[in-house]
Design a protein that fits this description.
Radius of gyration: 15 Å
CATH topology: YaeB-like fold
Shape: globular
Number of helices: 3
Largest sheet: 4 strands, mixed
Structural class: alpha+beta
Length: 128
């Protein structure tokens, strides 16, 4: 049974790695599809992440979650009418010591990319 989620919204944070991933994908869309599509993709992605501020546990565990020391969940994002999907990988940090609950986006991964290895999982955890 899942722990009950708080009624307070979760703070949303990105690791440097996740920000770099987003910038790289945006640059790729700029080159391949133009500024309008790239900007639409980024805005849509940020809107999708914003939905994690409430009930982030509604998203399923990432298939590679067992390779991490803590549970990693995923949100699949696909631009409206787009064919390219991205997996938004995140962890959930509940309240501790008065801190508000938080969702930490740790990585964005192209939907067609191979699964994360244990070594990659350790690298992502080291960046948190």
């Amino acid at each position: 049974m899942e722990p009950e989620e708080t009624s307070r919204p979760y703070a949303l944070r990105f690791t440097q790695r996740a920000l770099h991933d987003m910038d790289s994908a945006h640059a790729h869309f700029m080159e391949s599809a133009g500024a309008e599509v790239a900007d639409e993709w980024r805005i849509g992605l940020l809107d999708a992440v914003a939905t994690l501020a409430t009930m982030p546990r509604r998203q399923e565990a990432a298939p590679e979650s067992r390779r991490f020391k803590q549970e990693v969940r995923q949100l699949i994002y696909r631009r409206r009418l787009g064919s390219v999907a991205y997996r938004i990988l995140f962890t959930i940090h509940e309240e501790s010591g008065g801190d508000p609950p938080m969702v930490l986006v740790i990585h964005l991964r192209h939907g067609a990319a191979r699964p994360i290895t244990r070594a990659e999982a350790r690298e992502l955890e080291a960046e948190e």
